[in-house]
Amino acid sequence: MKFDHILIRYGELALKGKNQKFFINTLRSNVQRALKNYPHLSIKGKRDHMYILLDGEDPQPIINKCKDIFGIQSFSLAMKVENDEEKIKQAALEALNQDQGQTFKITCKRPNKHFPVRSQKMNQVLGGHLLTNTDNWQVDVHNPDVDIRVEIRHDATYITAKKIPGKGGLPVGSTGKTLLLMSGGIDSPVAGYLTMKRGVKLEAIHFHSPPFTSERAKQKVEDLAQTLTKFGGEVKLHLVPFTEIQQKIFKEAPENYGMTIMRRIMLQISEKVAEQKGILSLATGESLGQVASQTMESMHAINEVTNYPIIRPLVAMDKTEIIDLSKEIDTYEISIRPYEDCCTIFVPKQPKTRPKREKVNQFEAPIDFTNEIEKAINGVETVVFNASKSQKDDEIDELL
Amino acid sequence: MIYLDNSATTKPQDDVLKAFQTVATKYFANPSSIHRMGGEVEELLEKSRTQIASLLGVDRHEVIYTSGGTESNNLAIKGVAFQYQNRGSHIITSQIEHPSVLEACRHLEKVGYEVTYLPVNRKGEVSVEQLKKVIRKDTILVTLMHVNNEIGSVQPIGEIANVLQDYPKVMFHVDHVQGFGKISIPYNHKGIDLITISGHKIHGLKGSGCLIKKGQVNLMPLQHGGSQEDGYRPGTQNVANAVALAKAMRLSMEDAKNYHQLKSLKQTIINELQSYKKVMINSSETGAHHIINFSVQNFKPEVLIHAFSDEGIVVSTKSACSSRQNEASHVLLACGKAESDASTAVRVSMNNHQTKEDIEAFIQAFRNIMSKYEKIMG
User: Is some CB atom of chain A closer than 8 A to the CB atom of B246?
Assistant: First the structure.
């Protein structure tokens, strides 16, 4: 007797009223995409849960993949047996033996009233069977380590054991799209991840200033975009040539306002790119007070140039919390590679930490960036990353 | 020729050679260079490291690429000894270690360290009880081989790791060179701190290997220079070798399931050898299946090896690292064998794909040699 399918429980999306079907279908296609390499699986989405029929596949790697998918509250391995008391007893014992802990409880449900034993009675029968046939387990009905659930349905009986927590959140693609400003540092990928958690599909924008910024910095951003695909599928990365604009700011603007002006131009370009792509919001990795550009005054001065909503999932997080999360999602090690990016070059010695809107407008007024901005937008290069392997990955896998 | 000297080295697999050549040709840039070509090579290097880590269930930061077994053993032993000299200066090893361990320990003795060389029983096994007894307050390292290269005896690494887990200040290094791909050890066991693996013993390439160094361990590097391999092994990384090692390790682990078939082949050889009065079998039946060590009375091992060679069979004397010295095997002496047996030992070492036919040919050759020379050698 082996676990032959995985039961997936929905989080909030089970509550989403009339849109429920759309949410479930989105989740189902996300699960399907993540498990593309297992052609034998069949995935069935129902109103209150989803099943993956394993057809002999090892469940562990499949669960590991599903752990990265938003919209899943928890999983359990499940077995399907005939509606036969002896077989149910045997399967329940098997399920308990494959788990770890000291205490268990049996929760039996009997939607199939043709089954002769009532659920209360079944609880006792199974509990007794497990106690006599194991050594170290005890019953605890209030706070068990393992809850063995037995559902006697019309077609068969389903037995599930340990609940494995999922990521929660909403299925990516169910709540629209955002354009993430990604520098290559620790924060922006985490911001992207958290935005995806709320069901948002991601596109990313990166500003690079060759030859002042390193090729390796661009590669970093590409690797980050690739890493984020495992949570939300395809990520489009828009690379904006930023050299001319940065040089112009450096030459013509007062040094201490350079950073503020640069950020404002980044937002203007981002908004235009978002508009072109039909994206309704921007997202950043800003965390209040972290650096000069992220003080309240700076946000006030920089934010002036756009009225697009800016999603800042990290705004209230501490750096240490952000770092922990970035380690959890495997972006930390990429982010800390030491290469110059557009935010670390042309940095003023003393950037204004409390810039004022009037001042920045006054300094910007005589400098005309229109042509440069247009040129930058026309020069955007878009690279698409997919959760499935690229040709280059295949080549590397072949070598290894 | 039938090659039965796999503990000396193995034939590299075609796929490993192909991978080496592709990387050496296409990914030749320096992985530490900041241009994109360097970046791609670095990515490849790190992917190979991640693969090794996941094969063993350790963290990828715990894999240090080296040039092979000897270097990994030296780095582990001297690295620990120098790093923790303020903590103590006592090292425990066994009498039957590979020269790269024994000589490193002897060198340390010369510069003020104390080394306990654990004896072994007739089967070539150390006693866990005895190990417990010799651990002192100033012990900083236990270094033991997993599978012995001359006679195939297997040390109870898991059991020793359980014991040493209670001594957090005693590092445990395992020379796993002859065991990898044959007999697995609990790589991620908290009681094991350092593990030596060599590429050319597992159908990989000479000059490739790694040292697994768990996160809690610090080592004084033997070389000083750049910050490659986290500074533990400076010098431009040999990425083609690293990739070849990762591939050889993957293939070798996938192939480990074939190891059990060597058991009956070993038995076939032992059954045959036992029928000769003059033959002494030095390997124990409880040892690894792939190594059979035996001595033929009054038969100089060189002569036997050349005679086998004439019959198309490649076998060897003790370890290649010590076979040029014309003296008795330290391993066999430690196992309590007579000087005469210890200086006439011959080793047959198989790979996981050795066939029945290979072994039949070996046996036929042995019969031919014995009938031809037995009288002369008297």
Answer: yes
